[in-house]
Amino acid sequence: MDSWPLTVTVRDLLALPDMADVPVVAHDDDLDRAVGDVRVLDRARLAAAPGEPPPNGAVGGLAVVDCADGGPGALAGTDVDVALRAAARERAHALVAVGAPRLAEATRVLALRLGVPLLVLPRARATSAISEMMLQVRSPRVRHAEVVCAVADRLGRAPREPTAVLDIVANALQGVVQLQSGSRIVHAARSRPHDPAADPGATTVPTVVPLGEVRAPFTDVINGRGTAVLPIRTPDPTSGQLVLVAANRRGGPAWRSMALDALTVAQHPVAAWLGFERLSEERRRHAASAVLDEIAAAGGQLSAQALALALQLGWQPRGWHLALFVRPVSDAPLDLGEMAALEEELRSAGLPVEGLVPRAGGAAGWMTAGSSDGLPTVAATVRGVRAAIAELTGRGEPGDVVVGVGSARSGADGLLRSIDDARRSALLASPYLDQDRVRAHSGHSVERVLASWSGDDLARREAAALLGPVAGTPSEETLRTYLDLMCSVSATATSLGVHRNTVMNRLRRVQDDLRLDLADPATRLALQLALRTAPSDRR
Predict the structure, then answer these.
(1) CATH classification number, 23-121, choose in 3.40.50, 3.20.20, 1.20.1070, 3.40.1390
(2) Where does the CdaR GGDEF-like domain start and stop, copy by copy (predicted)?
(3) Which of 38, 165, 207, 391 is most buried by a 10 A CB count?
(4) Residue 27: per-residue pLDDT
(5) Whether pTM exceeds 0.70
């Protein structure tokens, strides 16, 4: 964590607005040297004999030399080598060549041999750039305050949507500013360079910053980039942490401190936008749920009011629909963050799902087309949903769910029936194996019987009570496998990777704990139904 007093480095100077796209011709891996002063190398200093001590004892500064041909006191381009030697003699930590022509390879090699980073500054920006550098080195707090106050002033007069806020901060810092959730970039803005062709890599591109849980603001060098990180207090802490990140590969300690203060100013309009967006999203989803309820109450018919609301939400109720039903593994309802993350991954997997709508027991979404041929096949939908869940799980994001896929149906009544098909399938999906997390509707009577049983609240409570003594233990997993494998001890041992004696011991423990006899067919049937029916957080 950086803190005052801060040392200004060559890297910090390169992060200044007029220096952001200035190329480093040589020695760009040694830019973290402290800069104590900015001084111009005049002819007296250039003519000093080798080995002569630096004038005024100046050491560790940034040397500036005018290389523009024809100007008063200017150097010829071929004399940059002389300036490099003078900078090395004065122990300068970098040389800025103003208006230098195309440099020979020998000059770059000389800079590397002398250990002096060589920067080439366009003459058009020389005056303002040198003034900026002098202010940054001699009064870093002034420069720091100027940037932060400018951010605050512009944010006070700008639109409050996050892209506009991030754009203001990014241009003030001459870097990238992004709003990040876990390993996903929600919004990002990049500063506009003076000359992108001069050094395309000078400004950092938006890249996910690898972060765990961020408990407090901090600054550091992450992946070779100066980075400032600020956690945002969200309206709903359960929807996943959001952080503001500012990054610049040329950002030294002074830049990082300034960036953190600029993010602190920006967090308030961002947090206000998040609250407004959450409220708007809740209203939209509840309005969508109300439309579905109205269609259901009308027996699948569309009233004029329901049609108007559906069209306002962007639906095509009279088209063909293929529904999904998302059921959380626990009995806790899905929150907005989980639904938004899953929607994004579903669309990335090629499934154009309408926004998920809260329903009893989970959330429903669907895809719509003008004909059944325009919809993805059920098999393709199952593959896409599995890919989306795997991506979320791989990122460690919240949202442990199972999903049912319905069948393609037409019209408003068909939409409700497709959602009901998907809901029944979701009740039969299992969170234990990846291939069982997504279940497609088969329409078979066996599936309907099992779904009806699994969806009954009384059955779920009784199942939880029956399995309570072994819930969440290895004995429960052994019992489940044993029943699924037709009560074969050997097959169960092989599936679980344990000795058959271990299986038999666990089954005896199940009988003792539940006070049941596994030799009784009715008992085995009840246990198998209970294992399918018990609330998932008890499993």
Answers:
(1) 3.40.1390
(2) 304-424
(3) 165
(4) 66
(5) no
